[in-house]
Amino acid sequence: MKVFVRFIDNFEQFFLRKEVLVFLLICFSGILIYKRILWDKGVSPLIQSDSQIKLYQTIEYKNHGLNSHSCFLLDNSFDTQFEFYPFRYPWAFFSTNEVGNRTCVFQYPSFFSQFFSLIPIKYQFFNLLILFLYLIVCLVLIFTLKYILNLKSLEYALLSGVFFIVGYGITSAFEFSESVPAHLFLSILFFAILAIELNENLSSFLLFVIGFIGAISIFLRSESIIYIGITGLVIAYFYRNDLLVFLRNYFFLFLGLFFSICLFSFYNESQFGEIFGVRSKVSLIDFTRLNFTDRFHLVKEFFVGNENRVGFLFYCFPSILFFIYSSFKTNLSIIQKKLYAITVFSFVSIVLLSPYSSGGLYAGMRFTEFTYFLITIYICFTIVTEKEKSRRRILVLLVIFQIFLGIYHVRKNIRNLDYIKKYHDIYQSKLEEYPDAPVLHLSTFDLLLISDSFLKKPHWIVNYQKKFDLMEEKLKEANVSHFQVFVYDFVPPKDDNVTEEFYKEWINTKFEIKSKYYEKQTDEKIAGFRLMLWKMK
């Protein structure tokens, strides 16, 4: 037993050395950047359907101005009523205006795409910029913890940085996702709250600015309002006997929040008719349609995962043990109790209220990613304030265990991305062989690998034969000599986020094309997909 304890002590002392932690951070960051650059040589964003939509949205703003909210199209004249527009739920929202014209807007927050449309870099490197933002969040975490806790050395702050960087939030850093900038804004707001709670002096103007910035996160990721709301309720509860102090401490932070929310809500209302954007309306509809069985299934899947994704329990069980152990074995300070309550209540609220499955390839849990950030802060506070050596040793070992488990899961996530990227590149090269040939899709499931081909040539959807007949007439009238068909050759899996009606109408819809004017030239099968070339007779 003494030998084991001595080994643990030596391992802990080695692992907690500043040089070792800095080395781990640099190495892991370097690997991520290197992989991202390799991926971006092919295309950015990589494969993910949500990221693709945000790219098209960004290109629309770049080409036609910041007030051009219409769904991106290469040629508006061919399909003015969006009858053959390939993207449907959950990406696009259609409506008919007062004169009977059909309009299409993407569901995702406009501010993210509008901002990126102003950046003078090639879209292939947007993902790399997202990854850098993720690393910046990590640096904000490290140096703010050192400042707030008045740490004389960086060891525990660096340990928190390594802990955070291998969390499941890394999934968003691989994509063109608004999650990372939302977390950056939210983290700045949260650290201002911690500074207030620890009696650090922040100027009124700085608090106003931080409040304004923090509120932007709500318009990027809607779950941010739950994190902010729960934080406010928990802190107000602890100030329940001294509400005047609470109001005095948080007045300018709240003022910045309020002003930002009013400003951006007014913009969204004037542009989209919804104060939180189109996505809020769709999310509300999705929330109301779920029954108890559906909700129970989503919650269960979040915690235990499925055949494609790891669940929260498997990714974070050392962290769960950390929370349980600290609850019973350590004397929590007031600030730790606040952190504990905010983390647990916001996490549970989001898991129970979200109408969507976790998503995100291997490591999903997208809507609770900021929880991992809160877990990191709580863990750092708890280890730093724990005086009893044996307890601190157990806490540190759980953190180290979580770090190695996180590295394992990140590695699996990258492997999955590499595998999909391989076939993504094959399909893109096949589509590029005929740059003038539009692509017809028979199902929205086929759109997962459409990537930036949508920026280069037209893609349409014909989900049943009569619709193909209409499209064929249009192609013949436009004197299109050939087109490609891209279709999944098996029964597509049913997404938990869609209804049975939508699945039957738009996803499980492939059929054998019968053409009057075109004949099939090639029919290739690649990893479950068919790619056909049709030429005019």
Task: Name the features.
61% helix, 537 residues, two-stranded antiparallel sheet, 19 helices, single chain, 7 strands, alpha/beta, 5-stranded mixed β-sheet
What is the radius of gyration computed over CA atoms, rounded to a whole number of angstroms?
Answer: 25 Å
| Helical content class | 55-70%
H-E order: HHHEEHHHHHHHHHHHHHHEEHEHEE
Q: Kindly, what is the distance between the CA atoms of the first and last residues, rounded to a whole number of angstroms?
A: 82 Å
Q: How would you sum up the major sheet?
A: 5 strands, mixed
Helix/strand-derived category reads alpha/beta
Q: Report the β-strand fraction as a percent range.
A: 5-15%
Mean pLDDT: 87
What's the β-strand tally? 7
- Work out the helix count: 19
Order of strands, main sheet, comes to: 4-3-5-7-6
Runs in which pLDDT lies below 50 for 5 or more consecutive residues are none
What shape does the CA trace take? globular
Describe this structure in words.
The protein is an alpha/beta fold and 537 residues long. Helices cover 61% and strands 7% of the residues. The protein is built from 19 helices and seven strands. A hairpin with a 2-residue loop joins strand 6 (518-526) and strand 7 (529-536). Helix 5 runs antiparallel to helix 6 and helix 5 packs parallel to helix 8. It is globular and about 80 Å long. The mean pLDDT is 87.
